[in-house]
Amino acid sequence: MTKDNITLETTVEELVERYPEAVGFLARNNVRCIRFGEALCYTLKELFREEGIRNPHHLIDELKRFLKIRRPIRS
Fold first, then answer.
1. Which is nearest to 18 in space by CA: 62, 69, 56, 71?
2. Res. 75: pLDDT tops 60
3. Is 75 among the domain residues?
């Protein structure tokens, strides 16, 4: 999975495994993706719905931007 391939169908487990820094980003945006020390078994779409996120596509875009800043693409 690349940063550009993160979609609403991406599982929380995949995201957290590949980009652990995403946990902090989501927490700062009032989305809890870790409970009892385990990544939730949801897609991001399911998680955002459960957490009441009104504009999930915007949050995905912000997450991608955050990850690009945190891990610049190396040539």
1. 71
2. no
3. no
Domain span at residue 17 reads: 3-70
The number of folded domains in the chain is 1
Choose among 36, 37, 41, 51: nearest CA to 15: 41
- For the segment 1-46, what is each residue's pLDDT rounded down to a tens digit? 555 689 999 999 999 999 999 999 999 999 988 887 677 889 999 9
Q: Model pTM?
A: 0.82
Evaluate whether residue 38 is within a structural domain: yes
CA distance linking residue 22 with residue 69, whole number of Å: 12
Indicate whether 41 belongs to any domain.
yes
